[in-house]
User: What shape does this take?
Amino acid sequence: MPRELAQRLFHELEQLPLIDPHSHINPHAAASKTLADILGYHYYTELAHSAGLPKERIEEPGISPKEKVGRLIEKLGEIDNSVQLSWFLDLAKTFFGFEDDRLTLQNWERLYDASAKKMAEPDWEEQVLKISKLEAVFLTNDFDDPLTGFDTKRYIPCLRTDDLVFHFENPATRERFAKATGITPTSAATIRNGIGKLFSHFKANGVRACAISLPPDFSPAAVSDGPGLDNALAKVLSEQGCADSRRLVSQFVFWTIAQYCAEFKLPFDLMIGVNRKVYPQGVYQGQDLFDHRVSLIQYKELLNAFPQVTFPISVLGQTSNQELVSYAWIFPNVVTNGHWWYSNIPSYIELDTRSRLEAVPRTKQVGYYSDMYKLEFGLPKFRMYRRILAKVLAEDFVIGRNWSEARALELGKTVLRGNVERIFSV
Assistant: This one.
């Protein structure tokens, strides 16, 4: 009975068209062209590398897409227990008619050729969106993105601000800033004005959110204009900044961005807890990890200072979820946002989903986002989440609380779709 109930709820949730509130899609090349685009997703390269495939064989310059896939296949049998490989098999069966239960040295070339033929069809992108029931996908746009050449109602701009906050000492970042704004960053005032121009540009092109990923040791704080900030900026802009001056400039830029989020009425997505280049010998995008030093108490000044700004928050480690739940429980402007990166496996998602649905107002939960780089991953990743959501709704609400199926389904739709529309004004 519980399994049948969960299956009915899952079937209904599968019919719901979705808006994906966070991805890394390139709107100019959203869908894959070869199977290498799909198996080149960092989950597969890092797992294959972890299983023993040398980085040099994965990232050798000049190898063809088919050769790269063939090399990855050597180790994919060792990760057939992983949820990540189940995503691949799900999309291969759905999009390319793959019928086998395992990807092997004997059948991969047949799949490669079939997928190449399918992806060469001129309307492939449209097919993927339709089959996946994706109406719109949020992007991750560099601050100097011209935002031209794509439909901003289908691919919704999101201003990503990591470079502004953490890399102003880099001459290339300052050159990009000057080119995008027409303002040379020489002082607090010029930086503040330039950031305002970036927000105006994004707002004029349909932006619906601002976003940033943050290291465990960062603590936002208001920074007053004055000699302290001026000295720190002078050091950073001359590339002679120490850790303290870089930290002060990062806090100033971050706080300025939060002020513009308030002015432009944009949610500010905070993705908290990533340590960069923990494993520098890792494959591309397979070098970053997390630890337990991060706490949302580091954000109390920000959350109190900007009650008018909605902060959808993602935490990198599942161990931080209880703290996120408590902050969303107390702070009106904190929203639980998806299941990010290392928390994006079913056992963690189920536990996190249960606690959020038990403790956080239903209107303050964004259930899931894909974080995908290619469109084909929207279907299996959202399907994984919908199965888990249906299971939790069935067990905890219909059976556990005697809710009707209709009432539980309505809650599921709110978490999956309704809150995305309302929070991000889509």
Summary: The chain has two domains: 34-119, 127-423. The longest helix spans residues 378-401.
